[in-house]
Amino acid sequence: MSAALAASLLAVDPAGFGGLRLRSRAGPARELFLADLAALLPEGKPLRRMPASISEDRLLGGLDLGATLATGQPVAMRGLLAESHGGVIVAAMAERLPANTIAHLCAALDTASLHIEREGMHAHVDARFALLALDEGEDDEGLAPSLCDRLAFHVGEPDEEPLAERREVIRARELLPRVHLDPAQMDELVAVASAFGIGSPRACLFALRTARAHAALNERDAVDADDLQLAARLIFAPRATQLPAPPEQPEEEMPPEPQEDRASDDTPPDEQETNMPEPGAESMVDAVRAALPADLLRKLIAGEPARRSPQHGGSGLEKRTLRRGRPAGSRAGDLTGGARLALLDTLRAAAPKQVLRRKLLPAGAAHPPLLLRKEDLRIKRLIERTRVATIFVVDASGSQALHRLGEAKGAVQLLLAECYVRRDEAALIAFRGKDARLLLPPTRSLARVRRELAQLPGGGGTPLARGIALAANMADAIRRKGDTPVLVFFTDGQANITNEGVGDRAKAEVDATEAAKHLRASGTRCLLIDTSPRPQPRARKLAEDLGARYLPLPAAQAQKLSAAVKAELPR
Fold first, then answer.
1. Of 487, 320, 478, nearest to 392 (Cα)?
2. Which residue, among 59, 89, 64, has the nearest Cα to 75 in the 3D structure?
3. Do domains 3-164 and 300-316+387-568 have the same CATH topology?
4. Beta bridge partners of 443
């Protein structure tokens, strides 16, 4: 997408769009782009730069430690968010922002204000701004999804295309409140968002704003089809999580299905779910499809936070520790168990209370320079990175062999190189016949995994419950070692072999559901790729039971599957 066009639209309504994610390395082209954008901002509105290592006090404002120690009374200090009210904040190395900074930015973008309550000080300040996030990450790094969702535009390296002229932006800013958008056009945008699997309501709101802003830039007071197509390309293409389902094929062109599956499937073909938009939105679907980046499916679950587990405290690439890791703020506590003192935060907590504490000292008692109490102690919160182990769980049964077993093998093989680059481990589980087998424990040997994949046969029954149970046991073992497990299921969701190894489809489906819910309770990150010829309700329900992201790929290729699995890896 054109960075110049996105920046021009952002300048029309900076705070309304939330901001822009610029995936670009530092250099003259980026600096020129930032200078051109700054020249388009409303007169007198600030453009402030924010380093990735900014402290919480500098970001939010809070206690002025020096003044408070001198006076004994809380003295407030304005933060960067309040100072940037009405303007734009440029966040350098935004992919490395700590979680607490991201949380504060998201809260301010949602409410356009800040409520500060700390160390005896209460304040409510306005903070309505746009965020320009400079994402300099490599392939395995990226901006937090929660922040991406709040920024309208996601663009890459700026080119030599010029931004709009300042007079055009000023005129568009004046015309914008009068631009009309028909309710039917809103429905078309929502239909396109649904077709591409976009569930965030912010995306639809951003698309509406983009269409209106583009019409205003072109000096029109009503949105037309060109505005809608451009809004769909700019907003929906970077957020797409699936490809729209293809048109229904004639019955004679459909691949044959196993006899037992046809007999047991009570869902009429015309009642199966599809994601096609309304006919009026087809042109916008084509526009979005043409603008999709080459690594679309890689963005499927990029950076999605892992679900918390009551038994294990959560899974993910990062975990909180007391002894080692990078700083992530502080909290009240005592110096036990190897905890480290956060000296400055301890002083901030004690400073407002010094006058009162001195008054409570007995008459004639010595007055030390600083009176500390146990409740003043603050200890450092640290975050340690952990290793990732990706477990591929492959359905090698008869129905799967007829569908996409070959593509599943290809997707796993393509992903092995990525695991090697990330220094991650990979494991392989297959289920067919009456049992599930661990073909390869976690390893970094690409040759071993490839050899096992090549030798993996297909055919027989589908002991889905046993496959899920074996994957859950391996995930628990990996988590106990302090590493992060990621499960990737390749299956059509059909089960016909019970836990006892008996061919009973109804009982097998119940067993699979129970095993899936047990795995979901552990909080393990999962991705389920439906490899049947057409998206199946059974596979979607299995994904819901697993708490997994569901990926239907009716026209899947091994490369697309591989990109989707890459996106599931924690950041």
1. 487
2. 64
3. yes
4. 426
Paired sense of beta strands 19-23 and 130-135, if any: parallel
Architecture of the domain defined by 170-242+275-293: Orthogonal Bundle (1.10)
Encoded amino acid at 151, one letter: L
Q: How many CB atoms within 10 Å of residue 461?
A: 23
Closest CA to 398 of 261, 542, 527, 555: 261
Nearest partner of 45 among 235, 173, 219, 147, judged by Cα = 173
Give percent above pLDDT 70 in the chain: 71
How many C-beta neighbours within 10 Å does residue 246 have? 11
In this structure, whether the domain defined by 3-164 belongs to CATH 3.40.50.300 is answered with: yes
Count of C-beta atoms within a 10 Å radius of residue 100: 13
pTM: 0.52
On the 0-12 / 13-18 / 19+ scale of CB atoms within 10 A, 238 is buried
Q: Could you tell me the two tokens for 266?
A: 């009570």
- What are the domain boundaries of the chain? 3-164, 170-242+275-293, 300-316+387-568, 320-360+371-385
- What does the pLDDT look like over 157-192, one tens digit per residue? 887 788 889 999 999 999 999 999 888 888 888 888
Classify 427 as helix, strand or coil.
strand
| Alpha carbons 393 and 412: distance in angstroms, whole number | 10
CB atoms within 10 A of CB 204: 20
Q: Could you please report the per-residue DSSP string of 60-92?
A: HEEE-HHHHHHHSS--EEE-HHHHTTTSEEEET
Least confident of 104-118, 202-216, 496-510, 548-562: 548-562
CATH code assigned to 300-316+387-568:
3.40.50.410
Contact 372, 526 (CB under 8 A): no
Residue 535 CA to residue 554 CA, distance in Å, equals 6
| pLDDT one-digit tens code per residue, 291-334 | 555 444 344 334 343 333 333 333 335 555 555 566 677 778 77
Higher pLDDT, 60 or 1: 60
Distance in angstroms (rounded) separating the CA atoms of residues 408 and 395? 9
pLDDT at 343: 80
In tens, the pLDDT along 499-558 reads 888 888 899 999 999 999 999 998 888 888 887 777 778 888 999 999 988 877 544 454
Residues ≥6 apart with Cβ < 8 Å to 15: 86, 112, 128, 129, 130
State the average pLDDT over residues 66-79: 72
Are 435 and 462 in contact by the 8 Å Cβ rule? The answer is no
Query: HSE (CB half, 13 Å, CA atoms) of 343?
Result: 1
DSSP-assigned beta bridge partners for residue 559:
none
Residue type, 127: A
